[in-house]
Amino acid sequence: MSEFQGIWVVAELTAEGxxxxxxxxxxxxxxxxGDKLGQTVTGVILAANQDTTAAEALLGQLGASQVIxxxxxxxxxxxxxxxxxxxxxxxxAKKPNxxxxxxxxxxxxxxxxxxxxxxxxxxxxAIDLDLNPEGKVEVTRSCYAEGLLSSVSATVxxxxxxxxxxxxxxxxxxxxxxxPTENFQPDLSSVRAGVTVLNVQQTESxxxxxxxxxxxxxxxxxxxxxxxxxxxxxxxAEALGAAVGASRAVVDAGWRPHSEQVGQTxxxxxxxLYFALGIxxxxxxxxxxxxxxxxxxxxxxxxxxxxxxxxxxxxxxxLTIVPELTKTIRDKNLSLHV
Length: 338
Ligand code: FAD
Description:
9-stranded mixed β-sheet; elongated; 9 helices; single chain; alpha/beta; 5-stranded parallel β-sheet; Rossmann fold; binds flavin-adenine dinucleotide; 2 domains; 23% strand
């Protein structure tokens, strides 16, 4: 039997200390792999002094049979050196078989370093995974806006996989199951923080919801013509209970904040419904939204590339169609059940 045992889920917490949506989704493939391999699922939380009891409880309810809480003062804020040292020390000590994490700027910053330090093999951008006949994880990863799917396996342990948001549904859970928590205190005395966090500011997404967590996103591009016309999108987003997104062209023009940018150099989103309004559909935009369950595009150019990715397309002027759509939704009191 291999010395590497167990499936780990690296849990990320929200600013309020709750288990992030993406971390909850990880329990679905983790439990599936755990059942097939007959190995336990462990949730791993990195934290300082904050109260993580709600996140620990939810990990248990969603299928983890234990939780390891890695604690140290240096983990109060995200520092790549401290997080890398803490997790690689734990991995080296406990030798998990599989480590799953959700895609975020933080995990993509420190997990490659953890893989190097702990000798593991890291596969990113996973959209699906299963076991091959040898019992190793076979990962389907996407590139070029899902234009290319590759199957990849790690050749060393632990097998580390970073999974895209919304690749898996959240598990239903098993009610009140309480997973025991073990505290692990890594020695971080040799960690030298090369940077200091000066200020952390919560950015606001206009519209009803936060972009990454919204079921519906209404995104606008240069076809909106000017910043002032985005109030049309905000009204539609409000009527639908959606979040507002943007293409890079309008962010670069200063029409919208960077926190709303979707795409290669912005956020990766995967809502149930994505409106691309006056957006051409450049590959750098598509990589950030192409896994949306349904895409509706409005563009006045019938040959715009976005129509190749859209499930429904309307050829026409966004400035006329969007207010009519909002009015109809409001007048008829329509709500979209997505
Ligand atoms: P345009 O390409 O100018 O398209 C505007 C569209 O609006 C056109 O299709 C036009 O037909 C339509 N239109 C015009 N008027 C109307 C109207 N009245 N009604 C309806 N339709 C109308 N882009 C991103 O979005 N996100 C990224 O993260 C990103 N990262 C990048 C990274 C790199 C390294 C590079 C090189 C580029 C990146 N880009 C990114 C930029 C990307 O290549 C495109 O330039 C950008 O997505 C275009 O934005 P757009 O569709 O709003 O504008």
